[in-house]
Amino acid sequence: MNDEERQRMVAGLILAGGRATRMGGGDKPLLPLRGRPLIAQVIERIAPQVGPLAISANGDPARYSSFGLPVLADALPDFPGPLAGVLAGMDWAAGLGVERLLCVAGDTPFLPVDLVARLGAHPFAMAESLGRRHPTVALWPVSLRDELRAALEGGEHRVGKFAMDHGSVSVAFDAPEDPFFNINTPEDLAEAEARA
Description:
By secondary structure, this protein is of the alpha/beta class. It is built from 7 helices and 9 strands. β2 and β3 form a beta hairpin.
């Protein structure tokens, strides 16, 4: 199987459903970084590594319409967090006949360009950098969707716990600057501006 065939077997999902309370609310992925929305920079990094690509976000999908991607809302009520976004992505990917789903956070503009290649060496893997796991940056087997749905319905909302309980391994990405740096505060945004 060549790289192009392997890529078509992976769908991508950008998790953009957070409430951004530390940024004063609103849609963090739409904040500008060097004059462009954060999510545009995430798309630029991820799109060449996957086949179909979608955005996970609740509320009015029109706010992401300029990116030309499907916008998936959680199937479960009350904003249960990113794990529900992963489930929505798995349901979408399964409908496309895709076996694996790459999930990334919509506020991580420096993602590695070899993310899928490195995570894809394992059946289920999440990224790690500087000794810290990043559960929202992971390559998931879509075959876990029924177990994930049952876990969510049972009250589990922790991405990392579900992933580790279901055999996820960590893949270390070591670089002088953290490729999974995410923007949670105005200070983080200023740091990303300086780094970009």
